[in-house]
Amino acid sequence: MAEAANTTPAYAAAGVDIAAGDRAVAMMKEHVARTRRPEQVADPSGFAGLFRLNTAEYRSPLLATSTDGVGTKALIAQRCDRHDTIGLDLVGMVVDDLVVCGAEPLFMTDYIACGKVVPERIADLVAGIAEGCRQAGCALIGGETAEHPGVMAPDEYDLAGAGTGIVEEDALLGPQRVSEGDRVIAMASSGLHSNGYSLVRRVVDESGLRLDAHVPELGTALGEALLTPTRVYAADCLALARGTEVHAFAHITGGGLAANLARSLPEGLDAVVDRATWTPQPVFSFVAERGSVAQADMEATFNMGVGMAAIVPSDSVQPALTLLAERGVAAWNAGSITSGTGQALLEGAHA
């Protein structure tokens, strides 16, 4: 994390509290330490994060990189004054993009912009990021916290991150491996994850519900349901690729299941997915019913209960389901790969 210099009266009068930034850095260090990997190398200056890559361990390594944010879900966290989960969303959005090609996430950096540095709040944000990195097995090797008075209100913040991973060139997963007759394994999402929150916020505002209101169909307060963190699949996907034969993954984010699954298909093949193989979590019907959102719009915006999909040969279905069950990942055989034009087609109705 970036170190701050001693504050000056003029800078403090302009709204930047560098002393608070120093306290935030001190408070986040214990969280960052939990993500340490043996390849990390200390940079005496503290300006960069260093990571030793032993290329002798690889035949023909490819570096993979991804960057993302959490979108307007951050506004829900701010309205609920709960900041320890949104970092998990950030990590999930980044590392689960990396793992789609089979890359092992190695390290991440983060960037937090805020109207005012409140050390405890920044520490909570970084604690969530660190927990996500721990779950993914990657190191949090650096970051930056920027105070933007006059641009953002004191309680506003946004966060983004970038990650780097590595994969052997001959182990690269993707459309080039997918064959007719393969099966689609769906992995359950934890809920909305971190997409579609502009629509979610509109539905909440128009419903007149408070975020601390208990919603019977959700079984919890509305804000708690909306802040359910994104599931981090990276370690599970890597275990699956190492333990069974996997041809491709698809991270189900903005655009929904059909659009993202289609990205992992070659031009001459379709994925046919049966909606009857699962029931989306209640939060999706809450948004659809309270906001009068059509099914087509729901499926084009949200993951609808599937956060990650794997395309595997038919004889790998049962081993894949067994391995995922042992890792605590709810998964099921959701469809198949057929001849077509490179589309993902959703058929039937949800159970």
Tell me what you see in this structure.
With 351 residues, the protein is of the alpha+beta class. The chain has helices spanning 9-13, 18-33, 73-80, 86-98, 119-136, 197-207, 222-226, 234-243, 256-262, 282-291, 295-301, 317-326, and strands spanning 40-41, 50-51, 61-69, 104-114, 139-147, 157-168, 183-188, 214-215, 220-221, 248-251, 269-274, 306-312, 331-339, 344-347. It folds into two domains: 15-39 and 61-171, PurM-like, N-terminal domain (60s Ribosomal Protein L30, Chain: A, 2-Layer Sandwich); 175-347, Phosphoribosyl-aminoimidazole Synthetase, Chain A, domain 2 (Alpha-Beta Complex).
Following the backbone from N to C, one meets helices and strands in this order, namely HHEEEHHEHEEEHEEHHEHEHHEHEE
What is the multimeric organization of the chains shown? single chain
CATH structural architecture of the largest domain = Alpha-Beta Complex
Low-confidence stretches: 1-6
So what's the overall shape?
globular
- How far is it from the N-terminal to the C-terminal residue, by CA? 47 Å
Beta fraction = 15-25%
Helix content: 25-40%
**Biggest β-sheet strands, sense, barrel:** 6 strands, mixed
Attribute tags:
351 residues; alpha+beta; 60s Ribosomal Protein L30, Chain: A; Phosphoribosyl-aminoimidazole Synthetase, Chain A, domain 2; 2 domains; six-stranded mixed β-sheet; 12 helices; globular; disordered N terminus
Write the layout of secondary structure elements.
Blueprint: H1 9-13, H2 18-33, E1 40-41, E2 50-51, E3 61-69, H3 73-80, H4 86-98, E4 104-114, H5 119-136, E5 139-147, E6 157-168, E7 183-188, H6 197-207, E8 214-215, E9 220-221, H7 222-226, H8 234-243, E10 248-251, H9 256-262, E11 269-274, H10 282-291, H11 295-301, E12 306-312, H12 317-326, E13 331-339, E14 344-347
Parallel strand pairs: 4-5, 11-14
Antiparallel strand pairs: 1-2, 3-6, 4-6, 7-12, 7-13, 8-9, 10-12, 11-13
